[in-house]
Design brief:
about 160 residues; alpha+beta; 8-stranded antiparallel sheet; 8 strands
């Protein structure tokens, strides 16, 4: 199982950062490669909510199912993708002084299998690392814009 983790300083309180991230309508604005993110059932947030996700990564187009598998208000949201791609994205929110938060983004994914998959392992790792970094950076910018600040800071 591949694992990548990034942390960054966000210029917004935990409550604002979490509220923005928890709104499914904003997910295509910040999640790399996601063109649409629509509720599949009646739940549209919280543990057990399921979404139909249309992904667009270069020439690759796919529809996947995404379920919120970890959820604690103002603390953590965990998304699990299933379909042609399987991965878990976990976003943690921790307070960092007055009006700031630490956003920790973690991705876990199944490495490619087979001989060709093992040969392409470094390429896949690099692509996932880049996608997580883009997702984290865009989410941070969107949260700060949502909060009305333009602070951009990084830690770790």
């Amino acid at each position: 199982m591949g694992h990548i983790k990034y942390a960054s300083d966000v210029g917004a309180p935990v409550e604002v950062a979490f509220t923005y991230t928890d709104n499914h309508q904003f997910v295509p604005d910040w999640m790399f490669g996601v063109a649409a993110f629509e509720p599949k059932g009646e739940l549209d947030q919280g543990l057990g909510a399921v979404f139909t996700t249309r992904a667009r990564l270069g020439p690759f187009r796919s529809t996947m199912v995404c379920e919120i598998t970890e959820y604690r208000r103002n603390v953590v949201i965990g998304y699990t993708l299933s379909g042609r791609l399987s991965a878990t994205l976990t976003l943690r929110f921790d307070p960092l002084g007055y009006g700031r938060a630490v956003l920790t983004s973690e991705a876990e994914y199944a490495p490619p299998s087979g001989l060709l998959g093992r040969l392409c392992l470094r390429l896949v790792d690099s692509a996932v690392r880049s996608a997580l970094r883009r997702t984290e950076s865009q989410l941070r910018r969107e949260i700060e814009e949502f909060h009305g600040t333009d602070l951009v800071g990084r830690i770790a």
